[in-house]
Design a protein that fits this description.
Helix content: 25-40%
Order of helices and strands: EEEHEEHEHEEHHEEEH
Largest sheet: 7 strands, mixed
InterPro entries: MobA-like_NTP_Trfase, Molybde_CF_guanTrfase, Nucleotide-diphossugar_trans
Structural class: alpha/beta
CATH topology: Spore Coat Polysaccharide Biosynthesis Protein SpsA, Chain A
Shape: globular
Bound molecules: guanosine-5'-triphosphate, magnesium ion
Number of strands: 11
CATH architecture: Alpha-Beta Complex
GO molecular function: molybdenum cofactor guanylyltransferase activity
Strand content: 15-25%
Function: Transfers a GMP moiety from GTP to Mo-molybdopterin (Mo-MPT) cofactor (Moco or molybdenum cofactor) to form Mo-molybdopterin guanine dinucleotide (Mo-MGD) cofactor.
Subcellular location: Cytoplasm
Subunit structure: Monomer.
Number of domains: 1
């Protein structure tokens, strides 16, 4: 019997290298219903990814799980999320030398889909292509599979471009967008890529989490 082969799980890097200035403290350590965001992200990522690393440029303010590699930006200076993506590519080239793509997910988005990798990696003609998530008509450039081979181009872009928009970088390369559905809850549709940037959004996330729990009962 031919059992279809599962696609290889990519190396993954959790992006948490920003300043968290709107929140006022590192977002990885925020507690949502008794568990840190980092815990929640790692739990959701673990079945989908091969090796997992955490991109950080400052102390996280919490104890990190043992075995989680921590990588600071390879081009220091807070050049934005693209610097974290470059760091992810450089790290993956070392930590998973046979991988063609690296997955990135930001640390502040606790409800991201548990079939993120399955669906991104099913994008047609993936070789050499960026596969990026999208919901409700909006692209989420930090949820993507990135060809590791474009690291040098990204580094040159970071060193020369002034705006450093992830969408503009994606437009330089072949890419596919993969659409993810909203999650139905009794309070209305929840975007699985809802992200937490402010204390108000942390409270909102608590409310959404309750809706998700009610949904399971
Ligand atoms: N490596 C790296 N990641 C960054 C940088 N700036 C933002 N990010 C990451 O990009 C993602 C989206 O950024 P934001 O949601 O704005 O997070 P932030 O920059 O920490 O928060 P603010 O300072 O409030 O804007 C988060 O996962 C950040 O950690 C950076 O300079 N370097
Ligand atoms: Mg954010």
């Amino acid at each position: 019997m031919n059992v279809p082969e599962a696609p290889p799980r990519p190396p993954a890097v959790i992006l948490a290298g920003g300043r968290s200035s709107r929140m006022g403290r590192p977002k990885v350590g925020l507690v949502l219903d008794g568990r840190t965001l980092l815990d929640r992200i790692v739990e959701r990522l673990a079945p989908q990814a091969d090796v997992i690393a955490l991109n950080l440029n400052a102390a996280p303010g919490i104890d990190l799980p043992p075995g989680l590699a921590v990588v600071a930006d390879t081009v220091p200076g807070y050049f934005g999320p693209l610097a974290g993506i470059l760091t992810a590519m450089r790290h993956a080239a070392q930590a998973a030398p046979h991988a063609a793509h690296v997955l990135t997910v930001p640390a502040d988005t606790p409800f991201f889909p548990d079939d993120l990798v399955a669906r991104l990696s099913a994008a047609p003609d993936l070789e050499g292509r960026i596969a990026v998530a999208c919901s409700d008509g909006e692209m989420h450039p930090l949820f993507a599979l990135w060809p590791i081979a474009i690291a040098d181009d990204l580094e040159a872009w970071i060193r020369t471009d002034t705006k450093l928009r992830a969408r503009a970088f994606i437009a330089r390369h072949p890419s596919s967008t993969v659409d993810f559905p909203m999650i139905d809850t009794k309070a209305g549709p929840l975007d699985p890529f809802f992200n937490i940037n402010t204390p108000d959004e942390l409270r909102e996330a608590e409310a959404w989490l309750q809706c998700l729990k009610d949904r399971k009962q």
